[in-house]
Amino acid sequence: MLIAHILNTQRYFGRGILVGTSSCGSYAFWGYFLMGRSAQSQNRLFTQQDHNVHIAFITPPSGDTSLIFYPPILHQDPHVIITNGSQTQVIAQALREGQSFYQALRTQSFEPDSPHFTPRISALIRLKDQSFSYQMSLIKALRGANTLVCSRYFYDYESLPGRGHFLHTYAHDATPLPSFCGEPKQIAIPPNLSEFGAQIWQHLDPTYKVALCVQSCHLHTHQVQTLIFNKDTNALHSS
């Protein structure tokens, strides 16, 4: 399904991870976006250091920022880690110790942000000589009559030209926010990074969207390109 069609189905997705392969098969594409309903969540933008992406605040924040301040995209050769929270560092440390994506996330739970209990979403891209594969994970709360339990889901994908997957935190806009359900959504990947970024940014709801970063990696040269969109400046940054 086209990215634009999926993004037009609802106003609020929360945070989102997209991974896939260009239609020519020569590039790996991935992206991460922030949306927010509160002033604290809207008070953010993306910055870049080398190929890594960081969250910064537009004005000095107040209160606890532990759930909204984290590195969303981290390059750790031959991997790229993408997450919506502190599990970025957990995955990175596990990989350095020879452990797996699965082992790292078995230690993690959903966010303690009652009443939403936001899912933790993650992706791990493994770049090979001239191809790549990726894993995705959804960790969310299952609600019982008087309790919550943690449910963890893992998905493994080989790259396929022109195809990818999209995972986001919330099923739709409500209070409390309902968690994403089902498998990551299959998406059609456009031919170049500019179009990939534009399709996402232009079709995220303008009231809620905060920031987007998309990156590409040429599978032969491993050259990385980055595009960043921040709502506060309405500008696109590239490198």
Description:
By secondary structure, this protein is mostly beta strands. The protein is built from 5 helices and 14 strands. It has helices at residues 3-7, 39-42, 87-96, 101-105, 193-203; strands at 15-21, 27-35, 44-49, 52-57, 73-76, 79-83, 120-127, 132-143, 148-158, 163-168, 185-188, 209-218, 224-230, 235-238. The strands form 3 sheets. Strands 11-10-1-2-12-13-14 form a 7-stranded antiparallel β-sheet, covered by helices on one side. Strands 5-6-7-8-9 form a 5-stranded antiparallel β-sheet. The protein is globular, with a radius of gyration of 17 Å. The two termini are 29 Å apart. The model has no long low-confidence stretch (mean pLDDT 94).
Instruction: Compute the separation of the termini in Å.
Output: 29 Å
Number of strands: 14
Shape: globular
What is the makeup of the main sheet?
Answer: 7 strands, antiparallel
If you compute it from the alpha carbons, what radius of gyration comes out, rounded to the nearest whole angstrom? Answer: 17 Å
Q: Helix amount, in percent?
A: 10-25%
Average residue-wise pLDDT? 94
Order of helices and strands: HEEHEEEEHHEEEEEHEEE
Strand order of the largest sheet: 11-10-1-2-12-13-14
What fraction of residues sit in β-strands?
35-45%
What is the oligomer described by this structure?
single chain
**Secondary-structure content class:** mainly beta
- Helix count from the secondary structure assignment: 5
Uncertain runs are none
